[in-house]
Amino acid sequence: MTDKTSLPIIGWREWIALPDLGIKFIKAKIDTGARSSSLHAFDIEVFEQDDGQWARFKVNPVQRNETWEVESTAPVIDMRAIRSSSGQSEVRPVVKTTVRLMGQQFDIELTLADRNQMGFRMLLGREAFRRRFLIDPGKSYRGGIPKKRKRHP
């Protein structure tokens, strides 16, 4: 078991990177109430390839900026029924990808969902940060804020 006092502390929102998906920076809400992590994706297409199911999708990494799109593909590891905060259940593709946060890099499972009406393009659920970080709900961006010119292509 990891000594809790040696874990880095993150805030309730952080800038993270999803390098496998071609996303240099995306603002994520650290959500201790959500088990799984979720990424705002649209034009989601699940297709068969020689080695299994894959998802092709687009992401707008920056809130309120729909002109900047990143197109990604990732292997689908599962199709899961996920209950939203409104209580609705829907089946979503789940992909595995790498996250970079505060100098750490690790793999997480990520559901793809239309989060366009939500305040954050990404939720980082507790399975992603469990045993890696402690959360200070009174702090934000403890990992730093990228310069605007680095956030955009």
Automatic annotation (TrEMBL):
Q: Give the signal peptide as a residue range, or say none if absent.
A: none
Q: What Pfam families has UniProt attached to this entry?
A: Zn_protease
Listed name of the protein: Retropepsin-like aspartic endopeptidase domain-containing protein
Which SUPFAM superfamilies does the record cross-reference, listed alphabetically?
Acid proteases (SSF50630)
Organism name: Stieleria neptunia
Q: Which residues form the Retropepsin-like aspartic endopeptidase domain?
A: 9-141
